[in-house]
Specification:
The structure holds two protein chains of two kinds.
Chain A (H helix, E strand, L loop, with lengths): L6 E12 L2 E12 L3 E6 L5 H8 L7 E6 L2 E2 L5 H6 L2 E4 L11 H8 L6 H14 L1 H5 L10 H13 L5 E5 L7 H18 L2 E5 L3 H7 L2 E6 L2 E7 H6 L1 H7 L3
Chain B lengths: L4 H18 L5 H26 L7 H23 L5 H30 L4 H21 L18 H19 L5 H8 L1 H6 L4 H27 L9 H14 L4 H17 L7 H15 L13 H4 L1
Helix pairs in contact in B: 1-6, 2-6, 2-9, 2-10, 2-11, 3-4, 3-5, 3-9, 4-9, 6-9, 10-11
Classes of the chains: A alpha/beta, B mainly alpha.
Chain lengths: ~240, ~325
């Protein structure tokens, strides 16, 4: 039954170089519409670079990125966002000097329809009520967890079809991490939003995802259903703490 | 900041016109200082769009000012008398307006030429490129004989008066505030706060940076035109690196992205050397000391009272 769904995103042999450093050595992945897919791996394995390559923030040297059947490898970031790909960058990166409301409005930057903006904002407030309480507060003064909620909420404002989350648990209190991961699942179910999740906390990521890729030094070394990966002894040893 | 900006602008313009009728009563020295303050406000407020609101670091504002000054002075000196030999007051004023616009547009054009390739650079690199631009412009004007070479252009008519300075001052303030307070203009702030996040939101960051740069250059050109028609003579030395630094100091002293503060700083830093006239040779020492003390005690700017989170908190 899974085979009948289409791939929303495919990477074919994507290579990214930073000067002489080979950051991604031929990455290929396939993400099915409606799934939560995770990329796990150690620091410097190329997880963030993969996301940035997809959203056009770093140029790719060779290979193709196919989104909904179209090649987007040569598009600029703002054109890619227009196509419905949203990226929550690592380290949250909210606009620190703007208010919560202004941050969310920035997220809807490409959306002209006021009604859509309003309903999307209501949806964001319904998942993260905390944001509504702090609507006028300057984003830089929010707690780490709240900034992460804001970063996710801001990405949702663009009404994406495909959401990329880069290390949503980074530097956040463990209790909040659990809450944020529940929200990620909720967003995926309610909005039918396909999610690509990059996460250091591999246990957590494999728990909520359907499929996983393991990256090492810019290459995919293993890929499988998340439940299978969780029981893979080598993966357990390297990434799941034994 | 402004509740009914357009009404306020019209009111201020009318007021400026009214006050300008009284300007001839003033002591010429005081009037000259007043007009210089106005020109510096135009320069500082426009630079604030780039350095403050958009978070780029430009050190080439004097270069843009020079382009505007030379373009408008050349128009007034060479073109206007040929086309309108028997000019009355209205024609002269119209010519001056055209000269200023021409200066602004020439400067904006220079802004595109410099900005388009260099705004892909960030921070220190951009500062160095803009600094280089300012120096190149100066050297070019020094070597073009048609524009007076090292002697510069002299005998430019004194067209700059209180009305024109306040007119352009108000227009500059209005344009910059209207721009950054619009939903389009929030993009400038987003680019400053986090370029990668801004790009990930679908903002064309290069386009925003170029717009900020070009608008800022336009008003620097206008200020240059006003300056040329105030001092009556311009030469390349008047637009050197120190001039750019003075404007940057105004922006930093007033507080980045704080238009009110930047206006105050422009007023203070123009008055300061006049007040310190007896010890004018120590002016730069005082500038430097002021900057050091300021950076130690009020890094957010003298007139910034809003609490801004330290950038590292957001990372």
């Amino acid at each position: 039954m899974f085979e009948s769904r289409q791939n929303i995103l495919e990477l074919h042999d994507v290579v990214v170089n930073f000067g002489v450093i080979n950051a991604l050595k031929s990455i290929s992945l396939h993400i099915k519409t409606g799934d939560i897919v995770t990329l796990i791996g150690a620091n410097g394995a190329g997880k963030t670079t993969t996301l940035r390559a997809i959203s056009g923030l770093v140029p790719i040297k060779s290979g193709r990125i196919i989104y909904q059947g179209d090649d987007i490898s040569l598009l600029k970031p703002h054109q890619i966002v227009r196509n419905g790909i949203a990226h929550v960058p690592e380290g949250r990166m909210v606009f620190a000097n703007l208010s919560v409301l202004e941050n969310l409005q920035m997220g809807a930057y490409l959306q002209q329809d006021k009604k859509v903006i309003k309903s999307q904002m209501d949806y964001v407030y319904s998942i993260f009520p905390r944001l509504k309480e702090r609507i006028k507060q300057t984003a830089g003064t929010l707690s780490g967890g709240e900034q992460q909620m804001l970063a996710i909420g801001r990405a949702l404002m663009s009404c994406p079809k495909f959401l990329m989350l880069d290390e949503p648990s980074l530097g956040i209190a463990p209790l909040l991490v659990k809450n944020i991961f529940e929200k990620i699942v909720e967003i995926n179910r309610q909005q039918g939003l396909t999610i690509l999740l990059v996460e250091q906390n591999a246990n957590l990521a494999l728990d909520i995802s359907t499929y996983g890729y393991v990256l090492e030094s810019g290459k995919i070394i293993v890929q499988d259903n998340s439940q299978v990966l969780k029981t893979n002894p080598e993966i357990r040893k390297a990434y799941l703490g034994g | 900041m402004l509740h009914r900006p357009k009404t306020l602008l019209c009111f201020s313009l009318a007021l400026a016109f009214g006050v300008s009728l009284l300007a001839p009563q003033l002591n010429p020295y005081h009037l000259d200082v007043l007009l210089t303050i106005g020109i510096n406000i135009v320069l500082a407020v426009s630079l604030n769009l780039v350095n403050g609101y958009t978070g780029q670091f430009s050190l080439g504002h004097a270069g843009f000012m020079a382009v505007g000054a030379y373009a408008s002075a050349a128009f007034t000196l060479f073109a206007a008398p040929r086309w309108f030999p028997d000019a009355n007051f209205l024609v002269t004023s119209a010519c001056f307006f055209v000269a200023l616009l021409l200066g602004g547009l020439a400067s904006a054009g220079a802004g595109v030429i410099v900005g388009a390739p260099s705004l892909r650079l960030k921070g220190d690199y951009l500062a160095i490129v803009t600094l280089g631009f300012g120096e190149i412009i100066r050297v070019i004007f020094r070597n073009v004989d048609a524009l007076g070479g090292a002697l510069g252009l002299n005998g430019i008519p004194f067209h700059t008066n209180f009305f024109w300075v306040s007119f352009w001052g108000l227009i500059t303030i209005y344009m910059v505030l209207a721009l950054v307070n619009s939903s389009f203009g929030r993009g400038f702030l987003a680019v400053r706060d986090d370029e990668i996040a801004a790009e990930a939101m679908g903002i064309n960051t290069t386009q925003y940076k170029i717009i900020a740069f070009v608008v800022s250059a336009f008003f620097a050109g206008i200020a240059g035109g006003l300056y040329a028609h105030l001092k009556s003579s311009i030469d390349p030395k008047g637009f050197d690196f120190m001039r750019s630094i003075e404007i940057v100091v105004m922006v930093i002293l007033g507080g980045m992205a704080n238009t009110r503060g930047v206006i105050m700083a422009a007023v203070i830093l123009t008055l300061l050397p006049e007040i310190l006239c007896p010890i004018a040779e120590y002016r730069m020492v005082i500038y430097s000391l002021l900057l050091i003390i300021l950076m130690l005690t009020r890094p957010q700017g003298l007139f910034s009272f809003r609490i801004r989170p330290h950038p590292s908190h957001s990372a």
